[in-house]
């Protein structure tokens, strides 16, 4: 039985195809705080939206599921778990003190309703194949991170055939090497597990890498070279899927992506002996170290054969056929980058005063993907993150959309970590055979107008200001900064910079040149709290000032004309 759902249901639970998106002009936006979003009437929604089966709704607001003993890979929530001695990043603001994000007091004359849905699962069209050389010296591997934080890890595998074998204990640093898509590239993974059950798990990460290569990198004619992955697998861990608001594989729309980059439909369960993926998962579940290493060794043999084909590296040729980088791969590369750079230094990111302008907080991958689509990020577009932290948004937008992405961070210690994150990020993209967009992160105060920053701002097409906890004086300073933006530039913010009304008093202020749209972020979209909230995209539109001047002129002339007629 199908049921009609409201606009609000679509926002919170459904990923729609572009052709199914609800017309923005038919949605209602709240005009003042504390006014709930008004859904369309039942009969109107039934007429104007597609019908969705009740069973296909996603439980976006559900709590993070605990891991079980299933052989299915489960992603760690990267922002909260790392290889460092601190397993969980403290929330930068207590939930009881969390301030709601207000909506504008009124809407601009030209504003549109903004409750239409965005499919976070959709790739942004761009070339993906890696062409630039990357400096791979001082590369950081899974093995290196575990070895440097060995006290946080414990034994996972055993030798089922020899109970006295100690080779899988931390003292002996057990490992396997795994082939990556780039020619001549591989990585060493430690075969140990975290003492903290919620910590970063290098063995699970290895399995995730294998599954993503099978799903997106193998040419169609070799799709079962490593065996049939369809017996009961899902491609991503639950926390990352929840973070992206992704549907399960059986209900995932293709999102307009090319056949080469789209996940292949699951096939009936297969139990043939050559299924290396099943052998790997069974060995992992049984904690059989010898069987696991044997499965990885045979997987490597298959991958090397594809990389050394007479027709060239077939894994990279498949990347060249993509029309965009899948969000799952973006999440995977960023999580790998984080664990090999910022993860071991996580304590340095949580020592700032809550609700100060230097508070460290992150936007999660699903929200970044949504913002990128709404703001129109793509190759050639210039993006700037004001207060970029460790470069989370900078590198994910560069990878997802191929845009020119910059970030400026005021705090020296955070900017130092961002430099390392950026270096490792380029190496990880190279391993995966993907070319990100040009990107850079640098230390600086965006309120001090250096020549470099001023040039970037004047040429920016999209600016992100995560101003959720900025003090009023800093927000006022940003308003003055935005007056230099070019026509059509967009500002993404977590608090609105204006009420949208053009009056004689604010004719020369930022309020007079911005069209403001309001959108909802979902529970889990930000690192500092679990509550949903709103963010804003403001577009520079200076024609509004001219229209207001004309209206004021006509209004001033009206009494004079009336008095002449009376004479």
UniProtKB/TrEMBL annotation:
It catalyses: L-lysyl(79)-[histone H3] + 3 S-adenosyl-L-methionine = N(6),N(6),N(6)-trimethyl-L-lysyl(79)-[histone H3] + 3 S-adenosyl-L-homocysteine + 3 H(+). Keywords: Chromatin regulator, Methyltransferase, Nucleus, S-adenosyl-L-methionine, Transferase. Residues 230-239 have a biased composition (Basic and acidic residues). Its EC number is 2.1.1.360. It is found in: Nucleus. Ubiquitination of histone H2B to form H2BK123ub1 is required for efficient DOT1 methyltransferase activity on histone H3. It holds the Pfam family DOT1. The keyword Lipid metabolism does not apply. GO terms for biological process: DNA damage checkpoint signaling; DNA repair; methylation. In contrast to other lysine histone methyltransferases, it does not contain a SET domain, suggesting the existence of another mechanism for methylation of lysine residues of histones. Histone methyltransferase that specifically trimethylates histone H3 to form H3K79me3. This methylation is required for telomere silencing and for the pachytene checkpoint during the meiotic cell cycle by allowing the recruitment of RAD9 to double strand breaks. Nucleosomes are preferred as substrate compared to free histone. Belongs to the class I-like SAM-binding methyltransferase superfamily. DOT1 family. This is Histone-lysine N-methyltransferase, H3 lysine-79 specific. It comes from Serendipita vermifera MAFF 305830.
């Amino acid at each position: 039985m199908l049921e009609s759902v409201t606009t609000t249901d679509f926002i919170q639970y459904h990923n729609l195809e572009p052709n199914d998106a609800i017309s923005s002009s038919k949605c209602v936006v709240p005009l003042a705080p504390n006014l709930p979003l008004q859904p369309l009437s039942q009969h109107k929604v039934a007429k104007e939206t597609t019908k969705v089966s009740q069973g296909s709704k996603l439980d976006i607001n559900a709590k993070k599921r605990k891991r079980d003993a299933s052989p299915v890979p489960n992603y760690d929530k990267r922002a909260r778990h790392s290889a460092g001695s601190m397993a969980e990043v403290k929330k930068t603001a207590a939930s009881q003190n969390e301030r709601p994000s207000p909506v504008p007091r009124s809407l601009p004359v030209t504003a549109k309703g903004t409750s239409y849905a965005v499919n976070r699962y959709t790739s942004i069209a761009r070339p993906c194949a890696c062409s630039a050389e990357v400096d791979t010296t001082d590369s950081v591997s899974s093995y290196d991170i575990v070895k440097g934080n060995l006290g946080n890890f414990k034994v996972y595998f055993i030798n089922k055939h020899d109970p006295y074998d100690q080779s899988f204990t931390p003292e002996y640093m057990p490992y396997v090497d795994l082939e990556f898509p780039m020619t001549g590239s591989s990585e060493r993974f430690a075969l140990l597990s975290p003492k903290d059950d919620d910590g970063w798990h290098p063995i699970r990460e290895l399995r995730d890498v294998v599954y993503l290569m099978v799903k997106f990198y193998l040419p169609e004619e070799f799709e079962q070279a490593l065996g049939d992955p369809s017996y009961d697998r899902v491609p991503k861990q639950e926390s990352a899927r929840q973070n992206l608001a992704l549907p399960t594989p059986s209900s995932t729309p293709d999102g307009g992506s090319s056949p080469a980059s789209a996940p292949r439909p699951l096939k009936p369960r297969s139990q043939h002996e050559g299924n290396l993926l099943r052998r790997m998962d069974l060995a992992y579940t049984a904690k059989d170290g010898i069987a696991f290493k044997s499965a990885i060794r045979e997987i490597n043999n298959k991958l090397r054969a594809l990389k050394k084909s007479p027709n060239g590296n077939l894994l990279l040729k498949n990347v060249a056929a993509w029309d965009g980088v899948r969000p799952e791969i973006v999440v995977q590369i960023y999580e790998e980058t984080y664990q090999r750079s910022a993860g071991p230094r996580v304590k340095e990111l949580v020592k700032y005063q809550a609700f100060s302008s230097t508070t460290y907080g992150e936007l999660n991958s699903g929200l970044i993907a949504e913002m990128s689509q709404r703001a129109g990020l793509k190759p050639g577009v210039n993006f700037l993150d004001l207060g970029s932290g460790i470069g989370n948004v900078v590198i994910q937008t560069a990878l997802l959309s191929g845009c020119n992405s910059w970030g400026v961070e005021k705090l020296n210690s955070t900017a130092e970590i961002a430099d390392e994150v950026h270096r490792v990020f380029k190496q990880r993209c190279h391993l995966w055979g993907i070319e990100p967009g040009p990107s850079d992160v640098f230390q600086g105060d965006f309120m001090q107008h250096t020549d470099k920053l001023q040039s970037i701002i004047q040429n920016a097409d999209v600016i992100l200001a995560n101003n959720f906890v900025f003090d009023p004086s800093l927000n006022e300073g940003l308003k003055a900064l935005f007056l230099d933006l070019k026509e059509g530039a967009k500002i993404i913010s977590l608090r609105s910079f204006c009420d949208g009304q053009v009056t004689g008093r604010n004719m020369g202020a930022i309020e007079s040149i911005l069209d403001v749209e309001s959108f909802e972020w979902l529970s889990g979209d930000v690192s500092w709290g679990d509550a949903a909230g709103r963010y804003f995209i403001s577009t520079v539109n200076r024609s509004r000032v001219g229209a207001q001047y004309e209206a004021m002129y006509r209004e001033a002339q009206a009494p004079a004309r009336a008095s002449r007629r009376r004479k």
